Description:
Layout: H1 2-20, E1 21-23, E2 29-31, H2 33-71, H3 79-94, H4 103-111, H5 123-170, H6 175-229
Antiparallel strand pairs: 1-2
Amino acid sequence: MRRRLHLLAVRALAIAIAGAVSPISAQLIVFDPNNYAQNVLTAARELQQINNQITSLQNQAQMLINQAKNLASLPYSSLQQLEQSIQRTQALLGQAQRIAYDIKQIDRAFSTTYAPASTNASDQALIANAQTRWQNSVAGLQDALRVQATVVGNLNTHRKEMSALVSSSQGATGALQVGQAGNQLLGLQAQQLADLTAAVAAQGRAQNLEIAQRTAAQDQGREQLRRFFAPGRGYQPSGVRMFHQ
């Protein structure tokens, strides 16, 4: 297009020069300098206007190219991998054994199994509660280890996703791709924090169950010791035959 506009400008200049020469006769040509200079100046101005238009069109075309780059979407997405990691961690938390992450269930357990030993409870009931508390502690420790194993397993996935997102960010061609890469990196960081929160919660649950078990065992031990020394109900000595005749 630039070449065609230049050709039109040259033709206009030639026409202007030809118009400045008026044939008087077949042998005599009269040259008018003022008219020639005016025509050359006019042609030069028209050529400058054409150059300005060409430059303007080039700038507009470059602006459209830049806008297209800025609106281009990032070709890589880590959303699916992050969602799968979160779902695995949530599934493990939802599979918590016995006393899980439920307020009503916790309150019910601490009003029965972990409640202070009752003087009216039978010895068999005390033993059963102690066994239940021990089972709860073991289940809590197992759940904590499972969550921790899942979080450790997610580390390799996080490493791969971070490497891919950083590479995509460095090769981004526009503002939109840069922003999307940054948002996905923030999503990866949020997922890592969620894994850390889950691991801390599972570990805290296991520790609290162990502490509650020891506390209840101490209270039950005092009750059993009281019963052992209670007059008329405690320990009654009896004869034992060591040898048979």
